[in-house]
């Protein structure tokens, strides 16, 4: 009888999607139960892979060890503290398994996260505008974004903390400090800086990994935020490559095509109207590891001036960010390259593991002027 192994194999995709929200937590428990050796635990953690990849490695390792190990692994997933950390496990382990989780989500009415405390929680803003290295230029105008964020989150009832031009070690220290304070309903962290595919730059030119921003607030490191929403906004470059603007040719009157004054990598014919980022509709840009749980939202990319109207309409955060994507996708900038003038586009890339609607209630005072 190989029932347990079959169950893991059948549920491998939803198990991966669930456990990848905090792979370090499940790895620690699996190793503590002696389901894998200390060396196997170290090898899985040390591999430079995404959270998803590490969970896949773990599941494969468990199945390779045979039926008894698979049975003990499923028993581990049914422990109350593990299911409190990964709530979807309650349904996966109860036999109420569906091969169509999307349809299941559509049929279920989504509840909302509690947002009744005042203050709602802490909002931590890192604004790195000036840098000590010549390779990182001043981010002119960044203070205006920081001020807008401060106004909006103060208006929404958060206790806002703005930290200017922080070196990486101080950023780490502040993140650790905030992970140890008492939190209420929600936590928000905004990082405005230069960046690369590997992470975010501090004032000193050192690089802070995205993982180092997120991990202080997981369930193991920050118990007071367990099962509460955490929102991370990251405004940072993701490298030096330019995302080209691509004309929507179906909207071009007169049959204009590239080559008819509508060159793909340069100026586009004025009659073409709207241009899309080359990778719109894709999960492009920086790979952001979903190391938190079902309550995390990570939003990398440009932060347009926050518009409180979405909150006034009672919209949830994902609806608001979808509108942000639409707004930003219609913007374009002119860059000078070795090939001449070039139109460049931007596209935010929200990643989330929220399990409920996240709505910020409208305060009684009027919305801020931005």
UniProtKB/TrEMBL annotation:
Residues 119-241 form the Caspase family p20 domain. Residues 8-79 form the CARD domain. The keyword Repeat does not apply. Keywords: Apoptosis, Hydrolase, Protease, Thiol protease, Zymogen. GO terms for biological process: apoptotic process; proteolysis; regulation of apoptotic process. SUPFAM superfamilies: Caspase-like, DEATH domain. InterPro entries: CARD, Caspase-like_dom_sf, Caspase_cys_AS, Caspase_his_AS, DEATH-like_dom_sf, Pept_C14_caspase, Pept_C14_p20, Pept_C14A. Belongs to the peptidase C14A family. This is Caspase-8. It comes from Anguilla anguilla (European freshwater eel).
């Amino acid at each position: 009888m190989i029932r347990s192994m079959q169950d893991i194999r059948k549920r491998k995709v939803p198990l991966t999607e669930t456990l990848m929200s905090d792979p370090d937590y499940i790895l620690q428990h699996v190793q503590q139960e002696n389901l894998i050796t200390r060396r196997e635990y170290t090898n899985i953690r040390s591999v430079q892979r995404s959270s998803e990849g590490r969970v896949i490695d773990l599941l494969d390792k468990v199945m390779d060890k045979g039926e008894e190990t698979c049975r003990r692994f499923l028993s581990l997933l049914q422990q109350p503290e593990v299911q409190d950390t990964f709530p979807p496990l309650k349904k996966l382990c109860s036999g109420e398994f569906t091969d169509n989780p999307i349809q299941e989500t559509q049929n279920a009415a989504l509840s909302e996260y509690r947002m009744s405390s005042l203050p709602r929680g802490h909002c931590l803003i890192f604004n790195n505008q000036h840098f000590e290295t010549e390779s990182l230029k001043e981010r002119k105008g960044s203070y205006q974004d920081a001020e807008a964020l401060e106004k909006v989150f103060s208006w929404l009832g958060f206790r806002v903390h703005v930290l200017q031009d922080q070196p990486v070690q101080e950023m780490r220290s502040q993140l650790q400090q905030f992970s140890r304070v008492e939190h209420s309903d929600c936590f928000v962290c905004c990082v405005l800086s230069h960046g690369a595919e590997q992470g975010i730059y501090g004032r000193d030119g050192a690089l802070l990994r995205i993982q180092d921003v997120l991990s202080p607030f997981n369930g193991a490191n920050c118990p007071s935020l367990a099962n509460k929403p955490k929102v991370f906004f990251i405004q940072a470059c993701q490298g030096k490559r330019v995302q080209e603007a691509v004309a929507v040719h179906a909207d071009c009157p007169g049959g204009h095509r590239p080559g008819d004054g509508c060159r793909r990598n340069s100026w586009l014919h004025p009659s073409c109207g709207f241009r899309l980022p080359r990778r719109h509709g894709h999960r492009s840009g920086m790979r952001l590891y979903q190391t938190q749980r079902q309550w995390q939202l990570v939003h990398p990319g440009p932060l347009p001036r926050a518009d409180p109207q979405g909150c006034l309409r009672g919209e949830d955060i994902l609806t608001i960010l979808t509108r942000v994507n639409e707004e930003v996708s219609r913007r374009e900038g002119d860059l000078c390259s070795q090939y001449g003038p070039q139109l460049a586009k931007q596209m935010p890339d929200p990643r989330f593991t929220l399990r409920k609607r996240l709505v910020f209630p409208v305060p009684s005072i009027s919305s801020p002027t931005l």
